[in-house]
Amino acid sequence: MRLALLLAALALLGPFMSEYGLKLASEALILGLYAMAFNLLFRQAGLLSFGQAAFFGLGAYAMALLTQKAEWPFLATLPASLLVSALGALIIGFFSIRLTRIYFTMLTLAFAQLLYAIAHKWYAFTGGDNGITDLRPPGLLGESLPFYYLVLLAFALAVIFLAALEGSPFGYALRALRDNRARAEAVGIDSFRHLLLAFVISGGLSGLAGFLQGALQRSVFPDYLFWTRSAEAILSTILGGSGFFLGPAVGASAFLLLRVVVQAKTEYWPFFLGVLLLLMVLFFPRGLTGLALGLIKWPTEVRRDASGG
Amino acid sequence: MDIGFYLLQLLTGLAYASTLFLLSVGLSLIFGAMGIVNFAHGSFYMLGAYLFYAFTRGQVEGFWGGLLSVLASGLVIGALVERLLIRPIYARPEEHQILLTYALLLILEDAVRFFFGAAYRSFPMPEAFSSPLFILGSPFPSYYLFLIGLAALFALLLWGFLYRTRLGVWIRAATQDREMLEALGVNVPLLYTAVFGLGIALAALGGAALLPLQAATPGMAVDAVISAFIVVVIGGLGSVWGALLGAVLIGLLQAFGILLLPEWAMVFPFGLMALVLLLRPWGLLGRPPAVRT
Amino acid sequence: MRRVLGLVLAVWVGLWILALSLGPVRAQGQQPIKVGALFILSGNFAGYGKSGSQGAQLAAEEINARGGVLGRPIQLVVVDDQGNPEVGVREARRLILQEKVDFLFGIDSSSVALAVAPLTDEYKIPLVVTHAATPTLTEQCRPYVFRTSNNARMDAWAAAALAATLPVKRWANIGPDYEFGRVSWQDFITRLKQLRPDVEVVSEQWPRFGSTDYASFITALMRARPEGVFSTLWAGDMVIFARQAKQFGFFNQVKYFVNPVGAALEVLAPLGKETPEGLLVSARYWFLYPNTERNRAFVEAYRKRFGEYPSYNAEEAYAGLHMLARAVEKAKSTQAEAVRRAFEADGGLVYDAPEGRKRMRPEDHQVFEGLVWGYTKHTPDYPFAILDRLRIIPANDTAYPTQCKR
Amino acid sequence: MTLLVAENIYRSFQGFMALAGVSLRVEEGSFHALVGPNGAGKTTLFNVITGRLAPDRGRVFFQGREITGWPTPRVARLGLAVSFQRAQPFVSMTLLEAVALARVGYQGKTFQLFTPLRHLVEVLEEARWALSKVGLDGAAQRRVSELPLGDLKRLDVAMALVARPKLLLLDEPLAGLSRAERRQMVEFIRGLLRQEGVTLLFTEHDTEAVLALADRITVLHQGQVLAEGIPEEIRQNAEVRKAFLGGAA
Q1: Alpha-carbon torsion C223, C228, C232, C233, what sign?
Q2: Residue of A nearest to B31 (CA)
């Protein structure tokens, strides 16, 4: 219920926001969706993936290449982006999921960097570091408000899907595997297939975020695949509080806003961002959401529900 | 078939390997002993380069003194960082360590740019190494031989330290069983401070030792940490010999790879890392994680 | 204590969300002409961005000192695009929509320039590029994108024109492995083969852009025994490569080392007295050329203001802003279409910059200018190497035909 | 009908021969105890049967079908449920959710992404049944992380029971329980399971409980079957006494 309230509020806020506010809000929602996709793997299945940029980039490049080279209409490339990034996740997941802990994290990083190098070097096909530009969606979706509603719709559908998934047998199976893999397998839950499906879903949603970001930015570059993009998903999730359902989305918008706000003020924005992250880790491990809930003292019932109890 | 050239290429490969080893051995030591994933490792490598420049003020006479002072200050800085920032989050899950060290990366990059400015800082070549050695007729810089020697020396010193001293035994034991160590009355927190300090000192020394051949740039930390991770993952997280093997493999891969496939120099390290992770995830010389019954 | 810290944090962030989303605050009083400048102010290339922003700042101060443009002062808003295309687009939008700038300006990285360029069509805000060198930007022939400095193809053609005069048949390349490095080599060698069909390529080396070890590449190059080496290594890469190559005696064996971006002060200053002599290098501007009153005045003003010699990036930004001011005065308006016509009118706007005459080609808004090359040489009165035996390549030798394709 | 057959199982760990040619037959409806000192190979045999460990040699059949080398989840879905010696709960869930998930797991229906678990009425009923059987139905909504050890053990058994298994494997069900809890568990096993017609294979040290519960006993010693038979035969068996009681009369 709280979710619907929030989405409705965001929808109503649309027309009142300035052009720049719409662009910022769209990007915040896109990065929020991207962080939520990461948290599906991280919180539900306990997998710390450092390669989400691979799927974010695949989704963006699928859209860019199909619209630029194959003249596909913009929205027609949406299913293609989801498919390509999900397929990428299937292949990378197939190899990575067998590994555990830091080795899984490192292999996903290696795969993402391999894709970055390929996008960077395959100049003829991807345009290399010149990237692919002029990706403004034609017609209505090229305007800020309609595009904001497209992003909000995508965000809403993804978040509702993730909320449903969390309460579904599949969501419980993932958490069972995370809590105790041996016990989960002993009750008939096949760890490889469940984790791989979670990896593919997370990959597809990250691809969706990449698709939207490419359209918002009007261009796609190898940077979409670089490891700092994967780090962004992790930072947003922890900043927002990975223990809370909407934590990553809160973290993503806070992370984006802080970068924009602090960067507008000083050339040494990384320093201030670093200090803030340091404070968060040391004093507010439960993230901004944990902090906010602590401050506002919501009735415990809501808090229990918020943490996907 | 000119043997001379291939020998030369081998030496350049080993030279690059020695720079990679000096950069990454500290990371492997810290992860091995403490299980800490230190994303700021490259920043301490950068800090070492800039501190070396500051201590010697770019004067070539300060070379040897500069190296020692960087090693010492690296130890102190490492110990302080461990004591103040890393200790509170031992019990915390992995991603908190990643976030904290990433925050350190951001802070250090800007601190260096604030104090040293954005220009590239380099250091003149000490005369002892200014004339190249001639190997089968082609010149090979003596400073590279110094680096290869330094890397080999450190590999031996670390090996001796880890396998032949009581402190070393404790450090290796810390990887397997921290509780057992505490049971034996070892002051583990102090041990961790020492290990982290040593790891950072090695990184700082690596940065300093490379300055005569390279240049300190404000953005070098991000690139260095990726190279360090690749070396350590290939060699095996936590194994000092693994870091050496990983460094040598990448060094030789670049030295000879560019003869066959000059186009693909950029992809070699990641390709090798992915291959190793697929075939032997815990690295060539790493130990498989304790199999959970 | 933790609660208070948290509360402060939350309120602070909330305030900003409100400020950003509800719209800009309108500056009152005489409407300044706002120019949003994007430069790289962090990371490996912060040096280039800093000198660029300083050059633009000096120009703005000069313009305002003489009463501004159309009676309105120029207000320069400098932001850090970090050389990242996404940040570039986000910051450009903030400048356009939030700061309500009239023009976008500067941009060091080619990928950022290509990412920001489409916004000029979308928001009808002209962009004056002063550093990014990708020829692709010129080929796009966008109505509101203007480049007041030469692009990489012109440098390559100039290098080829020079190389053709050298007694060299065996050529090799070592360049950074990305578009700038690749395209420059392609343009150079194709153009050189047209001028000297007898040349041959003996080796191509492609180190990763930003790599810190060139030993293996140097030995591989030296083995091929090239007489001439073309390179577009720049920034830290060039500094590191030069130092390592010197150790290998590379510069004794290779007679001619040709680098169109090697004469940047960001490279020569850190190398100082260690710069090998006899390198045939160029940059878009060399502060000791031309020996005119105009140039000496600029160098002196820049040095007095910032305590360092102006690098090519500083002069190009300085000249770019002045040229933009000239166009606005001619157009008598800051409106995009008027400014475009002003740039294109009567054969293209001409401006006498410290480095010499710049003429904007109307078809693709690319400035053509003479390029200065020289051989590095150490002298007692400068802490770094200066250019000796200057070779000037006139503008029409580098003016390749217009190729608009998008 | 013989429910489970383990034929000539060999399994070694870096040279140590945990199982050296062990064979076992479990008849349907029987209560079969697997006893022996620590390190005799009991848990290893369990792990081979449930698929956690593949045998070096030998074959395993369940309801006449060969399942040698099958992965644990696939074996579990055949209706062969196991409850571990060390209870390993799903800490992030409530008791009801944990048992309900186990039910869905055994049915192999965990790939449902859209229907909420709490809407699966049949599953929840089965879960409540299993919890009531182990006397935990009152605590259904409590969080697993707040349970004492004794209850965790019973929850673990409930998670096996909810499968309505054809064969239930209990690995030292009495380990770590107080005297009262042990008596309660023995009662539970004897009374309830008879009623449900469950076939039980269990390991246990407490010889008194084994003799009270089992209608067939297999004695393992250093990876080999020392003796097999009904409780009385085993009690008199000289070999068993020698091995267990150190040869004392």
Answers
A1: positive
A2: A102
